Amino acid sequence: MSLFYTLALLMAIVCSVTAQTFTDCDPLNATCPAAPALGTNHSWVFNETMDSKIWKVTNGEIDWTDDGAEFSIKKKLDSPTLQSTFFIFFGIVESHVKMAKGHGIVSSVVLQSADRDEIDWEWVGYNTSEVQSNYFGKGNDTSFGRGGFHYLENADTEFHNYTTHWTQEKLEWWLDGNLVRTLKYEDALDGKNYPQTPSNVRFGVWPAGDSDNRQGTIEWAGGVVDYDAGPYTMVVKNVRVHDFHTGKEYNYTDHTGSWKSIDVVKGNSTTVDQLNKEPEKSMAQKWAELPQAAKVGVYCGAAAAGVLLLAGGALYFVKQRKKGRLEYALDDAKWNNDRTEMNNLQSTWKTSEWGGHRGYHPVN
Ligand SMILES: *[C@@H]1O[C@H](CO)[C@@H](O)[C@H](O)[C@H]1NC(C)=O
Ligand SMILES: *[C@@H]1O[C@H](CO)[C@@H](O)[C@H](O)[C@H]1NC(C)=O
Ligand SMILES: *[C@@H]1O[C@H](CO)[C@@H](O)[C@H](O)[C@H]1NC(C)=O
Ligand SMILES: *[C@@H]1O[C@H](CO)[C@@H](O)[C@H](O)[C@H]1NC(C)=O
Ligand SMILES: *[C@@H]1O[C@H](CO)[C@@H](O)[C@H](O)[C@H]1NC(C)=O
Ligand SMILES: *[C@@H]1O[C@H](CO)[C@@H](O)[C@H](O)[C@H]1NC(C)=O
Ligand SMILES: *[C@@H]1O[C@H](CO)[C@@H](O)[C@H](O)[C@H]1NC(C)=O
Ligand SMILES: *[C@@H]1O[C@H](CO)[C@@H](O)[C@H](O)[C@H]1NC(C)=O
């Protein structure tokens, strides 16, 4: 097993050096590979492991349960996150979510582009009666007063429907079927701060109130995280994503970051192709469906050819688990750096905005 592990580690290092992905590149000052498109309307129920070619766990571990995908903070600096490999160029994202409750814990559903356009739903763990709406254009964080605060009940114990409806003219946040906020293109600094470039979908939970973070950050997050009182869990039951364009990919033809500069490349979306394929996990499913007696047979090392095939299934599991740990170890440092950088960018205005609007509040 340790030989396997060593080989896997070497592979991972080689791959991470050679794989130039779209998200590593900022189209505002570089020529980037085109972003893969979703190019369709599709719903996912997060009750079983998702195809990693479509939904990628970018940090930590996610528990896929009957209730939905559970994003848990179990120990210091845990911050599990999931993101789509596909991008949408305007469209609808409908998420059914239970926020994580607790001081200093932030749950979020984010649409984000390579040049840091961003559309958010955010929940701050001390208040289970509030969801916040937010947006950024090209990472510009200097404007205060753009956060929206929306009342709802039992956001931690009940699933609510958080839907973003995004076009080139306007952005709408819908909460349980009610329109709670509209942002017009022209009202976001004449469009300059308007999110308008192909974005992927990200879910995550983050210990913003970690005791090592800045005081301002801890305050807006509602206090210091008490890791002993955890775990803190956000649950995403299901998501529907409707891309308003159909095509293969989205190409930035210049460095303006304007929606007018985005070329929709014709062709079949690789995500649609992948959706139409036999799911990658079918081997694992076959294994799960086997009677216990057959599994015992495999464990005992029966030599029949058919059983060898099944043993392949067991090995596959081991590989998947290792792969998960390996990716975690390799990504963790990078993730924490990125997160801190993003936090430093946004926390200045959040501290000011929240300082006036909301201070520290105890959890009820
Ligand atoms: C692109 O610009 C961003 C900010 O505008 C900067 O953070 C980044 O380092 C730049 N990248 C390159 C490759 O110049
Ligand atoms: C999008 O898909 C959902 C189910 O996944 C369906 O209910 C809805 O009608 C579809 N919308 C369009 C415009 O096709
Ligand atoms: C997940 O939910 C879908 C749709 O409700 C259902 O068809 C499927 O069997 C469920 N999967 C599991 C593992 O329960
Ligand atoms: C960022 O937004 C602020 C406030 O809306 C605006 O004054 C400033 O010009 C913007 N910066 C850029 C680079 O667009
Ligand atoms: C929680 O948020 C709601 C909606 O914004 C607000 O009415 C309420 O006062 C807040 N509660 C606390 C404890 O901050
Ligand atoms: C969720 O809200 C959106 C926007 O109002 C609506 O179109 C959609 O049908 C809702 N989903 C469910 C399952 O009610
Ligand atoms: C994307 O646009 C650039 C600039 O117009 C062009 O050089 C490149 O070939 C395009 N890529 C694709 C995949 O269309
Ligand atoms: C795109 O998909 C269609 C139908 O699924 C198929 O007939 C066609 O060959 C595909 N095109 C390419 C370029 O793969």
TrEMBL record:
It comes from Aspergillus avenaceus. It catalyses: Random endo-hydrolysis of N-acetyl-beta-D-glucosaminide (1->4)-beta-linkages in chitin and chitodextrins. The keyword Iron does not apply. SUPFAM superfamilies: Concanavalin A-like lectins/glucanases (SSF49899). Residues 1-19 form the signal peptide. One of its GO terms (biological process) is carbohydrate metabolic process. Pfam families: Glyco_hydro_16. Dual chitinase/transglycosylase that plays a role in cell wall architecture. Chitinase and transglycosylase activities are coupled. Required for the polysaccharide cross-linking at the septa and the cell wall. More specifically, transfers chitin to 1,6-beta-glucan in the cell wall. Residues 1-229 form the GH16 domain. Its EC number is 3.2.1.14. It is a lipid-anchor; GPI-anchor. This is chitinase. The chain crosses the membrane at residues 296-318. Gene3D superfamilies: 2.60.120.200.
